[in-house]
């Protein structure tokens, strides 16, 4: 029987029984509800919202207050899945105390079940401090968008032996620090397979091939809501931008030519 993820502890149970973990992003109550009803385990209020919802050029400008605002909205729409808050740039890197306070806001103010933070072994002490405070944490290694500049841009990571070894080391360090799962972003499939098999902690891949213990995508990519952004790793299951564009143009046409609204969409008779 399929395992229902009720707490972050159930993620490891899923890994043990080789059941895939499913995670998607949401930024508001409507998508939170739709994604929840589809049957995902985890809904990530990702800082990708900076780009897909707030119109920033990267995730760097996203603030804690913006993340909390959106996490609260998502949480209101979700009944079953666990909601995960993504700690934005400089909300946790500066020190343990600030990391614990900001991570705690996701639980206390938005009702999240866990937080996610980007970074390798260097961030492990901070991750451990947040876990010690009683807050479940998902790590995130490989291509880490908040520091993509340092990584040479939005590029696949871990292609050569040295950086692959560094990523394996990062994964071990974060698991030892108490991470309840690790997002592996844009790394070669066989490296993701090795990391996943070496860890007890589940891995959740995005652009990391089929051997991870779970998969995550940005919902906007999956639904085709950003027509000019079509990354190799994101399968488009629908073309909603096209559907929305057609519907919006039809509305404009019908208002212009007077075919909307009709009696069907009006209150009372149309003539006296
Ligand atoms: O912010 C985000 O949406 C993410 C996913 C890409 C994992 O971190």
How would you describe what is shown here?
The chain is an alpha/beta fold. The protein folds into two domains: 230 residues, Phosphoenolpyruvate-binding domains (TIM Barrel), CATH 3.20.20; 33 residues, no CATH class. It is built from ten helices and eight strands. An eight-stranded parallel barrel has the order 1-2-3-4-5-6-7-8, surrounded by seven helices. Helix 7 links the parallel strand 5 and strand 6. Helix 7 packs parallel to helix 8. The chain is globular and about 75 Å long.
Q: Tell me the name of the CATH class of the largest domain.
A: Alpha Beta
Sheet with the most strands, sense and barrel status:
8 strands, parallel, barrel
Could you name the ranges where pLDDT drops below 50 across 5 or more consecutive residues?
Answer: none
Quote the distance from N terminus to C terminus: 63 Å
Bound molecules: 3-methyl-2-oxobutanoic acid
Q: Remind me, CATH topology of the largest domain?
A: TIM Barrel
Query: How many distinct domains?
Result: 2
Overall number of strands: 8
Please bin the fraction of helical residues: 25-40%
CATH superfamily of the largest domain: Phosphoenolpyruvate-binding domains
Q: Helix-strand pattern, N to C?
A: HEHEHHEHEHEHEHEEHH
Mean pLDDT: 96
- The whole-angstrom Rg is 21 Å
- Going by helix content, strand content and strand pairing, the class is alpha/beta
Strand order of the largest sheet: 1-2-3-4-5-6-7-8
- The tally of helices reads 10
- What's the CATH architecture name of the largest domain? Alpha-Beta Barrel
Beta-strand residue fraction: 5-15%
Overall, the morphology is globular
């Amino acid at each position: 029987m399929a395992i229902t993820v009720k707490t972050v502890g159930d993620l490891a149970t899923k890994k043990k029984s080789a059941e895939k973990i499913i995670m998607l992003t949401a930024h508001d109550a409507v998508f939170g509800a739709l994604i929840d009803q589809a049957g995902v385990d985890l809904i990530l209020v990702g800082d990708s919202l900076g780009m897909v919802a707030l119109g920033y050029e990267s995730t760097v400008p996203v603030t804690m207050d913006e993340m909390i605002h959106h996490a609260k909205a998502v949480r209101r729409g979700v009944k079953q899945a666990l909601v995960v808050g993504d700690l934005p740039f400089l909300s946790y890197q500066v020190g343990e105390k600030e990391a614990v306070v900001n991570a705690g806001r996701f639980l206390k103010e938005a009702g999240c079940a866990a937080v996610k933070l980007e970074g390798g072994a260097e961030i492990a002490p901070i991750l451990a401090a947040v876990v010690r405070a009683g807050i479940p944490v998902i790590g995130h290694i490989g291509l880490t968008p908040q520091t993509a500049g340092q990584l040479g841009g939005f590029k696949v990571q871990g292609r050569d032996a040295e950086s692959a070894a560094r990523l394996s080391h990062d994964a071990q360090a974060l698991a030892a620090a108490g991470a309840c799962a690790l997002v592996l972003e844009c790394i070669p499939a066989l490296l993701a397979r090795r990391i996943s098999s070496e860890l007890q902690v589940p891995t959740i891949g995005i652009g990391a091939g089929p051997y991870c213990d779970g998969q995550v995508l940005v919902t906007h990519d999956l639904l085709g809501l950003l027509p000019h952004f079509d990354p190799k790793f994101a399968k488009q299951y629908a073309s909603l931008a096209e559907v929305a564009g057609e519907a919006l143009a039809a509305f404009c046409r019908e208002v212009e030519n007077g075919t909307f609204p009709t009696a069907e969409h009006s209150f009372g008779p149309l003539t006296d």
